[in-house]
Amino acid sequence: MKIRRANKLDIEEIVACVNSSYFHYIERIGKKPAPMLANYQQAIDEHTVYVVTDGSVVVGVLVLIESNNQLFIENIAIHKNSQGKGFGKSLLNLAESIATTTGHEFIELYTHESMVENISLYKHFGYCISHQITEHGYNRVYMKKRLIS
Question: Global pTM?
Answer without folding.
Answer: 0.95
